[in-house]
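agent> fetching stored inputs for the copper (II) ion docking request
agent> found them:
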Amino acid sequence: LGAGALGIAAYAGRDLLIGKKATLASGTARSQLLIPPLYSGEREGGERVFDLNLRHGVSQFFDGIETPTIGINQPYLGPTLELNAGDTVRMNVTSDLSETATVHWHGFHLPARADGGPHQPIEPGGSWTARFDVRQRASMFWYHSHAHRRSGPQVYQGLAGMIYVRDSASEALDLPNDYGIDDIPLVVQDRAFASDGSLIYSTRMHNVMMGMMGDTMLVNGIVEPVFEAKSDRLRLRLVNGSNARFYRFGFDDGRSFHQIGTDGGLLAAPLPTDNVVLAPGERAQVIVDVSDGRPVSLLADGLEIMGMGNRGRGMRGPGPTRDSDRPVDNWMMGERERRDGMMGGMMDERRRFTVLDIRPAASRRRAIAMPRQLATLPQIDPGDAVRTRRFVLDMGMGMRMMRGGGFTINGKSMDMQRIDETVRVNTTEIWQVENASMMAHPFHIHDVQFRILDRNGRAPEAAEQGLKDTVVVYPGETVRLLLRFEDYTDPDLPYMYHCHILEHEDAGMMGQFTVTA
Ligand code: C2O
Ligand code: CU
Ligand code: CU
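agent> prediction call returned; pasting tokens
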């Protein structure tokens, strides 16, 4: 199809038309949730060794329809890697892909050479070894492609997996801990499919600007799965593995639950709530009680991330329920934009998804009491900060963006040859992130788990007071982060900071910093 004939401006690659988008799910029998295999590696000497193979595969997301995908040791996504704090691990990654890829350990504190960012490419047929000590607190992390300008399409096709880090403090708590039984990893990804079953990945301007979104919800690679609960209390570990879509999760009957963890670890204490908001890259752990024996669905509203009207508003709002019909909250799109219809054709990406139907089994393991305290969070003293760095996120509009130069941090588009910031090891800094654009951006920093100091001068809400590696910055907002740089230095090899909307990252909303002695 000629792009010109369709009146579409810059239209690259083997993209398919949104107009051809098919809803393939209707009429298909519901599938059971698939739990990715738990992979603990092999002990060799003092190391825990993992063999990971990147490969093309074919997946069946819909009955009898084959979809070309990418996976790690399997056709789509990869195994859940199980690591213990204190382990020394060796990741042997081989690639049978037809293009250069990388594997990045999102959320990990490790040497830059082991980070798996764009400076550690794995060529087709090639291999890469990463060796590092596990210095994380217990939490769920994830691994995914970080290939230069190709993270979006590679993650979209399946190059991602989850990582469980365990430590003795969290194992000693009375929390559901039986992988796949009452401790359930959920990677949430929206996807668009063409009528032949292939994934639609479009680099039309609209999809680059808004990020690539789909109308079909995949959870661990299964369309709207069903899960049979054999326990009264479930621990759900959510990762927003979508390229661009933000979600607000909640249960269809409005039941409350507890959030127990953020990106990089457990909260100090369980937080009662009825909703959790996650932008791409963010994670949360929640505990839900199903002891009433009634089926319940985890829903997610895909949130609108455009508009100046939400300037300065808080993140939280009521969770989606069966009876609430509006998948978009005012705070996500300003009243002005809503009234004037200013965003016109941009508004078609809002939707409500069913993430997981939970059906309690007739006989279930009894609930254990929720611990009152979960963790003692490391304290970083803002008074120790040696400096404040500013990061201004922007999206140029018009011709500049169409030429690909519009996605910037501090006015600069990502350049692999340029080190943007140099920090000193064993120092504390404040990073002040300002959003000068019309869209919300999830700002992610490699190598550190940081704390949110304030949003527009106000203390973060309880759900954001834990360890974070990705933080949403809403239009017009200024968010200050407190970071401590430790252990690893390299004068030449940088870590990344970037927007975790992968199309924005690929389009240049990324910068590089080194940590030096
Ligand atoms: Cu999850 Cu730099 O990435
Ligand atoms: Cu990362
Ligand atoms: Cu962005």
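agent> quick read of the result: Residues 441, 499, 501, 504, 509 surround copper (II) ion (ligand 3) (CB under 6 Å).
agent> awaiting further instructions
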